[in-house]
């Protein structure tokens, strides 16, 4: 398991932004994260392929 500070870059095909929070889809899997000032996203949760579950997680 990756430790704190270890990041795996994503290549999202969709980013849905809701103020500072966003949902990012990479390879069919949805992740929740925070949009940074420089346009990068730090994700901390995965919701699999279920967009409805990801939206409810916001």
Provide an overview of this structure:
The protein has one domain (14-57). Strand 3 (29-35) and strand 4 form a beta hairpin. It has one helix spanning 51-57; strands at residues 14-18, 21-26, 29-35, 41-46. It is built from 1 helix and 4 strands. The mean pLDDT is 88. With 58 residues, the protein is mainly β. It has a 4-stranded antiparallel beta sheet, with helices on one face. The longest helix has 7 residues, at 51-57. It starts with 13 loop residues before the first strand and ends with a helix.
Provide the descriptors you would attach to this structure in a database record.
single chain, four-stranded antiparallel sheet, mainly beta, 4 strands, 58 residues
Give the percentage of residues in beta strands: 35-45%
User: What's the average pLDDT?
Assistant: 88
Structural class based on helices, strands and sheet pairing: mainly beta
Overall geometry: globular
Q: What's the total helix number?
A: 1
The number of distinct β-strands equals: 4
* Unreliable segments of 5+ consecutive residues: none
Order the strands across the largest sheet as they lie in space.
1-2-3-4
Determine the N-to-C terminus distance. 25 Å
Please provide the ordered H/E string of secondary-structure elements.
EEEEH
Give the proportion of residues in helices. 10-25%
Q: Write down the domain tally.
A: 1
* Oligomeric state of the chains in view: single chain
Query: What's the story with the biggest beta sheet?
Result: 4 strands, antiparallel
Q: What is the CA-based Rg, rounded?
A: 11 Å
């Amino acid at each position: 398991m990756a430790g704190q500070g270890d990041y795996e870059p994503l290549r999202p095909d969709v980013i849905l932004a809701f103020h500072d929070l966003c949902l990012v889809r990479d390879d069919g899997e949805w992740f929740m994260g925070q949009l940074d000032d420089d346009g990068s996203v730090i994700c901390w949760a995965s919701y699999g392929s279920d967009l409805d579950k990801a939206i409810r997680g916001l």
